[in-house]
């Protein structure tokens, strides 16, 4: 465990020291996020915080990670690097969604070719397809979650903490080292990104975090559990980004919009703010939700297969009901706002 703590500390110091530098570079290069009606910030914000996370993650692993294990994750590091670079290109000059998707599929394909893929016996030849969907899905889920100060980085921090604990309890140094580096990098970045933020991670950070978390979820193994149920645990740990993406997808498809390319304030965080919370309060509440999912994942590691399946079904049904209620409330609020607008126009 001492080795993990050293990796966390080194990644934290690197991220905390590199982020201010990236802020100055972003301002000089003009890589900034301009204010807009759908956004919460009122002044241009530098967007290269993700590069600080990337550098802290890679350097801390090279300095303190076991070199034999580091060589085994070339596929993960290469795919994550590709995602970070395409995110940086998108931050600087917006790329077409189709181009970003193709690059993400390329990165996921590299992951599969390196031997990191889902291996469920009942999926058979579909394991590769499910791996590609999972990696691209979680990568974009974290990108979509990057909509408030400290939200994406904080959720990645909490999820990587639980991945680190699960890896340590199951004797998986490789996953533990990667999770420790990601944890430290996220904490160091949050020093500058928590509300009120002075820098954003941008797509270069959000896509990187999503890709690494998806890979850690695949790589994590539970020797004492059957693979028929152990796959539920990583999904539960990443339950918040999965739920938020599902909510946004359902909401936007209902309104006839493209769920990935249509911007809007329809995320779970925005809905909490609309219910009266401040942005900081909404983010902290979602931290608690993410932590609760992580604790549930830890519990499932000790549960029987039947109980794990029962809890998994209960979580799925609860999530479906939550999406239904949140969307019903969203429709009702939109109708009220429409009536108010009409009344103001007539007045």
Walkthrough of the structure:
The chain has 347 residues and is an all-alpha fold. It is built from 15 helices and 2 strands. It has a two-stranded antiparallel ribbon with strand order 1-2. Helix 7 (151-169) runs parallel beside helix 9 (202-219). The longest helix has 42 residues, at 305-346. The radius of gyration is 20 Å and the shape is globular. Residues 340-347 have low confidence and may be disordered.
Helices and strands in order:
Blueprint: H1 2-29, E1 32-33, E2 45-46, H2 49-64, H3 67-72, H4 74-92, H5 97-113, H6 127-145, H7 151-169, H8 173-193, H9 202-219, H10 227-230, H11 232-237, H12 239-254, H13 268-274, H14 279-302, H15 305-346
Antiparallel strand pairs: 1-2
